[in-house]
Design brief:
There is one protein chain. By secondary structure, the chain is mainly alpha-helical. The chain folds into 2 domains: 325 residues, no CATH class; 104 residues. Helices cover 63% and strands 4% of the residues. The protein has 23 helices and 4 strands. A hairpin with a 2-residue loop joins strand 3 and strand 4.
């Protein structure tokens, strides 16, 4: 009896070590795969904007009122906590490991006896959210927001659905939305899942759960509105972080703006119809399908709707769908039931989206081979940097000039496609609320620019050859500034005190 007990204990210990060991190995592999990202130059436009606004926060400049971008505040506050690109990447690396752990917990909970499915799905999820293929190496909102969503669903699916647990889950999804608003659409997945199994006895329970979830979602976002109201930036926050995002919907079809509402929004309405149709099919088939299959499929439908909102082909958008896709792939590879075949249907829809919208992708092998050439000494640092973007070394020279020739409190104005990179590298801020050239083109006008420059009199104005044509700016600087240097055809102008 003692012998049998000992053997049983040993098996349990081995099983536990096995689970811990393969997950630890996966974590180690994912960290190794992220090492090249720690050595990336300041080049990626979105990262540079986040770091510039983060530097503004560090210098006491109010978000939205003093510096503008069109996302909620958590990404900029994370950039402020990081202080530079290296630590920004480090924060992302550890956040991603926590997200992978949460994903494993979720899959393990909803498929408790399917250990191979846990492993396969988690490995797929970890790789897709780490490799450059879908911009897993860059700091983007999607990589931050999927973590809270996964933990929210883990609570909703494994814990008692009382007020506390549902409210906390709503708060987690709200936190995800404070990284990027499309995270809110994941709520549709869980609400649709609840609705599929509703009956006359559980109707009021369903309504109650929806209210609890909504309260949890609304309160954290509501608190940010209160914060920015007392900071004097309520309108700016509302417009920049929320209302301007409506302009992203179908924004890559500018010729449709003048068309009637139904025609202009027909693709969006069709996608909404596909979501409703998909949920309807799941509802009709609920007696033949497992709850796990229905949940993952409903979640996928919700995320695909969010991914395609703007119809833009940025690969990191698809990260929002990676969790349900990874589970479905795990089911396809490991299950030996009829649902192994059925998962082909939602997976086909999932892979149709990037194909139809011609999503971009980034070569993975090239990324790592380039890093190996750099660390092995086959190419110099300048050559390595230039392979990310041809203007990088010029940006570093301009930033170095600003660091040596200006104080941290000096305002500088940079007219360049790479302005955010130069701002973030030099840790200098513009005299305007806009940091990127497209901010001026989309949200401002020339009169605003000249009014700000005339009043603030920035110490330096830099104009690079890769900037949008702005002849009036050239006339302005020639009247009020003196050219003191040229760096790789970029002009550096010094203010002339009168």
């Amino acid at each position: 009896m003692l012998e049998l007990y000992s053997m049983d204990r040993i098996k349990k210990i081995i099983a536990k070590i096995d689970t811990t060991l393969w997950l630890e190995i996966l974590f180690a592999v994912l960290l190794i795969l992220r090492i090249p990202s720690f050595f990336e130059p300041y080049y990626y436009g979105d990262e540079m904007i986040y770091l510039t606004l983060g530097e503004g926060v560090r210098q006491g400049v109010p978000l939205y009122l003093g510096l503008h971008d069109n996302k909620p505040p958590l990404l900029y506050l994370t950039a402020a906590a990081a202080g530079n690109l290296f630590f920004f990447k480090v924060i992302l690396a550890f956040w991603s490991l926590i997200t992978v752990y949460g994903f494993w917990k979720l899959v393990s909970s909803i498929f408790p006896e399917k250990k191979n499915l846990h492993k396969i799905s988690t490995i797929i999820f970890g790789l897709f959210t780490t490799l450059p293929l879908l911009e897993g190496n860059t700091v983007n909102a999607e990589l931050f927001m999927i973590g809270p969503i996964i933990f929210a669903f883990w609570i909703l699916l494994t814990k008692k659905n009382n007020f506390k647990n549902i409210f906390i889950s709503g708060c987690l999804i709200s936190i995800a939305a404070l990284f990027k608003i499309p995270a809110a659409f994941d709520i549709l997945g869980i609400v649709a899942f609840w609705a599929i199994f509703i009956n006359k006895d559980t109707f009021f329970e369903f309504i109650k759960k929806c209210i609890y979830l909504s309260l949890g979602f609304i309160i954290p976002i509501g608190l940010t509105f209160i914060w920015y109201y007392f900071a004097g930036a309520f309108k700016e926050y509302l417009v920049a972080a929320f209302l301007q995002n409506f302009g992203y919907v179908s924004s890559w079809r500018p010729t449709d703006i003048a068309k009637p509402f139904l025609i202009k929004n027909a693709p969006l309405l069709i996608r909404a119809g596909i979501f409703v149709l998909g949920i309807g099919v799941l509802f009709i088939s609920k007696k033949k399908l497992s709850k796990n299959f229905i949940f993952v499929s409903a979640w996928l439908l919700a995320t695909l709707f969010a991914v395609t909102l703007s119809e833009r082909p940025y690969p990191h958008y698809f990260v929002q769908s990676i969790a349900p896709v990874s589970i479905l792939l795990g089911m396809l590879i490991t299950l030996k039931t009829v649902e192994q075949s059925l998962v082909v249907i939602p997976l086909t829809l999932a892979f149709f989206v990037p194909f139809y919208y011609k999503f971009w992708y980034y070569p993975t092998s090239t990324y790592y081979l380039r890093f190996i050439d750099f660390v092995s000494g086959k190419i110099t640092k300048d050559v390595y940097f230039s392979k990310f973007s041809p203007n990088i070394n010029m940006n570093y020279k301009l930033a170095d000039f600003l660091i040596k020739s200006s104080d941290k409190n000096d305002k500088v104005f940079i007219w360049s496609n790479d302005a955010p990179a130069i701002y973030s590298l030099s840790r200098r801020l513009p005299p305007t609320k806009y940091v990127a050239d497209y901010h001026f083109l989309d949200f401002s006008n020339k009169e605003y620019v000249f009014d700000i420059l005339s009043k603030s009199k920035p110490k330096f104005i830099i104009i690079t050859p890769n900037s949008f044509k702005f002849p009036e700016l050239s006339d302005f600087v020639q009247k009020n500034y003196y050219i003191i240097s040229e760096v790789d055809s970029s002009q550096i102008w010094l203010y002339i005190k009168k």
